[in-house]
Every structure is written in C-alpha cells, then in structure tokens.
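Task card 7
Instruction: Convert sequence to structure tokens.
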Amino acid sequence: MVKPSLVIVSPALADSNNGNWQTAKRWSDLLLDHYSSRIIKHWPDSQNTQNDSIMLALHARRSADSIHAWAAQKGFKSDCPGLVVALTGTDLYRDIHTHAEAMESLRLAGQLIVLQSKAMDAVPLEFRHKAHVVYQSTSAMPSITDKGQTLNVLMVGHLREEKMPETYLRAALILKNEAGILLEHAGEALDEKYVEMIQRTTSECPHYHWLGGLSHEQSRTKMQQAHILVHCSKMEGGAHVIMEAVRSGTPVLASRIDGNVGMLGEDYSGYFELDNAEQLAALVLQLRDELNTSNKAGLNHTLLQQSKLRAPLFAPEHEQTSLLNVLNMCKA
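Output:
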C-alpha cells in the first residue's frame, strides 16, 4: 500500500537544530508508519509536488508563502483541504495581531494546531472551530530520587528577549548571600546586554554558574539532575524545556503566562508573576527550606505530584494519536 505524501514545512532545518526543526523531525518520525514525509523550508520544492496529499506547516507567518502557494494550487481561498498550520507562540501572541500574512494563513488553513490548551483562547473566534491541541512530546528519563542536600536550580534556554533571562539573573542577586542553593544557567547569550548581566551576577553571586550553550543531551541530563527547572518566558507557544523537565521527574517554576499555564495546568503551584524576581527568589528559598524535610504538604512534594499528573500529556504516543486525529480530518 502506497502511503500518502506529507510535506512538513519548517522555517528551520537540521542545520539550525532549534525547536522548529526538532518539532518537524519528531512529527515526521511519529507519522512514519502512516505517511511518506519530507521536511522542507519552502513549498513547492520540486516539479513533482502534485502527489503531495497534506501540508503541515509550522508558523503562520514564516511559512506564509508556502501556505499561500498550496492553497492557490488547490484553488481555495479559505479552509483549504489538506492544509494544516501549526501556530507558534510568536504567531498567537504577536504576529496574527501585526502581520496580515499570518492572519491570512489562519484563513487558508483547513485545520489548525496549537501546542497547549491555553493557546485556544488566543485563536481568533472565527477560526477556533478548526483548532486542535497537540501537546508536544519527549522521551521519559528516569527520575533521580537523591539529588543531594543543596537545592540544584537550573534555567535552560538561549538568552534572548522572549525568554526573560534577566528575571533569573536578578533572582540570583537577591539570593547571593543564601546558603544551600546552586543556581545553574545554560544557554548562549544571543544579545550582548546579557553578557554584561551574566558577568555581574557571576561576580556578585558565588553560587550562580553560567554553563553557556549545551547540547540537547547535556541539557536533558542537567534537567534530570536538578531539583527544579526555572522558566521565565514572556511568550511561549508550548515550551520544550517544560515537557523535558516534567518527563525527567523535575518540576518547574514558571512565569504565569498562558503558554506556561497551558502546559502545566491552571491549578499548578509553581507560578510566579512575569518578571517578578522577588517572587521567584521567595519560591526558591521555600524549596530550599523544605528540601531535607519529609513535609508532604510542602511545595516540593506538591510540585512533584502535580508534575507526575501532567507527564502523560507529553508522552510520544499521546502526541502521535493527537496528530493522526488532526490529519485524518484532512480531505485533500
């Protein structure tokens, strides 16, 4: 039996090795038994595209040219069969409000994918009927039960504006005289202003350590070893690091934004208000003070239990089923 042809359009390919590429590659692998797929940056990519059954495009704005070309070839001005557009955080929380081509992609799509439940609220009402939640997934790593007597806190992510690393750096300065805490920070400084902030924090806070850029494998090992992951972002479609931490048995302290609440749940106990370094520092101190106790009513235990309940949402089999359900709605 010949498998239908699926074309995945991603703004980033393997040489970038960023979240877009990882998502595209993972989706291709998850759908391998059902579709013959290829990952490309622009469509059409050859003369032999007439057999392509479904386009799955990442980014409403950055893949807009390919989305428009597909709809034009099929002869549709809206709700194009076989056209699925996956919306990122920058699509939902910025681009559809400022770029006409991003909004046009929503109109042209036959189906839309969002990456966490709160993202549904950001989809314009007129298009919400064709939007579906597909949680991204990652493999599970064994949880480490004994992580030592020092609270190991970790932030992972390149230092750029959307990730709000300054919140973590300011929290480190607040905690500079506190014992029993290790603050690690992984990621490349993509903006020069963060280099200066890192240097100041390193000089003033002896238990803050900038690790620079790590490989994906190194980052996951660090997450597995940490007591807590910190995620300070102001804009997220569905953060990979959150699901990777949760699937490693490590809870998260996260900024209270829709992208994080949609991943961790409305009733999750580990939120701090956006850019509130004082609140983040207070949560870290609370975790440190509870670390070597057996308080089952404490924050440590609560976050661990809440994370365990969310972990199945980020399992590969859950993502695969969700993806297939969306693609099965396509009638190219």
